[in-house]
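Page 47, continued from p. 46.
Same chain as before, 719 aa.
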Amino acid sequence: MKKNKNTNIVASLLMIFFMFLFLIVSGRYIYIQATGVVNDVSLSEWAEEKRETSVVLPAERGEIYDHNGMTLAYNRPAYRIYAILNPEYSKNQKEPKHVVDPEKTAEKLAPFLNLKEAEIKEIIETGVEQERFQVEFGKTGKNLSQQTMEEIKSLGLPGIYFLEESIRYYPNGMFASHIIGFAQEDEETEELTGMIGIEKEKEKLLGGTDGFLQYQRDRYNKKLIDPKEVIQQPEDGHDIYLTIDQKIQTLLEDVLSQVDEKYSPERITAVVMDPKTGAILALGNRPSFNPNNPENVENWYNDVISTPFEPGSTTKMFTWAAAIDTDNYNGNEFYKSGRYVVNEKIEPINDHNGGAGWGSITFDEGFRRSSNVAASKLVWEKMGTETFLEYLERFDFDKKTDIDLPNEVAGNILYNWPSEKLRAAFGQGSTFTPIQQVKAASAIANEGKMVKPYVIQKVVDPNTGEVMKEHEPEVVSEPISKETADQMLDLLESVVNSKDGTGKPFRLEDYTVAGKTGTAQIPNPNGKGYLTGKENHTFAFLGMAPKDDPQLVMHVSVKQPKLEADETGSIPVSFIFKNVMENALHYLNIEPDKETEQSTIETITMPVVHGDNVTTVKKQLEKSGANVTIIGKGEKVVAANIEEESEFFPNQRVMLLTDRPTMPSIIGWSHRDVLALASLLDVKVETSGAGYVTKQSINEGKKVDGKMTLKVELTSPID
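Result:
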């Protein structure tokens, strides 16, 4: 009896417990049914969310054009391949809609995807094992052309589908690559994103705003009968028109590639600008890259705007401009060239021909010959170092140009110690970018008005054609007067057109050129001094044409070209400048001016000198502007290197051979002058190197005869 009683008690307790549990579960069920909420989550909202999907409607990326409307960058349709693996997708279908034979599928796809059959098969089978709905095939399965897509479709492989998307395409390949840049798919968002250049700088303008499509679906990702669609249309990106001219840029790219292939330099930069407006018509660098295939980019930097370097003697045009503008310049004043010693504490300044100089010459001639001594004297003795610094800042060499491109870097004016101030006069120590120099040169080309460089001409709404923004030329300052600019153009023209000018290789056939050469030393990577050797320089030219009313200004630099023994650094630089400038001016229908300008430099007629007194003849020639060298210690002239009654240019070296010939010092002489001397003395000559004489085998003052051989070493100048 006792046992039955205990059993009844336990049974009653269990019954009460289960009744209580039933009430809790039932109550919870009734509550959920009544409210539709579980743990503060609305079941109806949760179900809605599960049924609802959203698809991004990508905005069309804006296109990029040159200033004439030629397409430089646009979106091209491409296709991404994927494979559906879930058999449920084929439910109630007459034919299979999923991959049914991984091996056959892999075999057929392999030739199109640049993957091995085994790799494709593994991707599919791994996806099946992991019960994945679909799989893709990595990078090789993206950016397929329409032709490839159609060929794969024609195979009739079950379960193989394509998603259409856009890729950025650059029809000109390696063309203004550092300006345009490139856009590629972001790994996280899978959206086109600008990486460098205009594509990056104007990402918001070009990219637009994506839209979306929301709808409800079933478990197989198919729309419901009533999908409750919500559509937000995308806002396409704006189109950008650049100042770049496709034809001039193409010409520049071709010439840069030729020089790059022939001379294998470390770097090349070139930029062409309209000095009236600041519009950049062409810009290029080497190394460069093809934006359609940017995986192997050697040089990410746009060196024209991002790589300052010691410019060398192109700076002298601004040194002379400062002296002229402050009334501290007399071009006819003479000074002693060759070597300038300020005091014992400051390292002497040497002219670029080994410090030999050209004797006592005028400051105008010093400019033509690119005299470091003349430049230093103008700063130290004529206008003063503080005035020169003021003009360097007036020309904005201490700041960026604010060109509308990313990653611009400002140069640096090195101007702390006296030696730095002296050397800044001829472009040593301080560093500037090519774009800074072109901007500064616009003041000389544009009557004293300095303009801001720019590459974006206008921004256009592609749907309406409305111009959203258009660039207006901007004069940023007037660092010099119109009179100074005009005088500088005359001086710059003499650099190119005079016989003693360093810019002779830069003459054009149909247009007068005003410009300045520069051969800049390269700092030694170990931090001690500069690199040595003929090739270890950055050779440059900054010029404009036509001289009287410059329509284009161009800067070219070639760093460390591989030169032949008889070549100078001006050869690759002039090849670029002459080809681009001559053809660009003709293309722009600029009227040639050479016919009226060729006679601007007056010539001298060589008098009859044979048998005359040496001293008398020398005075007569020097009065006419000739550069006279007497050969020997005799009193009578027996011969000269220029024929009597023929014409020659001012400052051309005239050699007067006396009746007691001896060897002169020829340090600093050109190769041409050495050959003329050898002919006068009737001696054989052997030369090595290129440029100006640094060593001679026959000592100064030694008697010479026809049995001797004169051996000389020449070195490329640092001008």
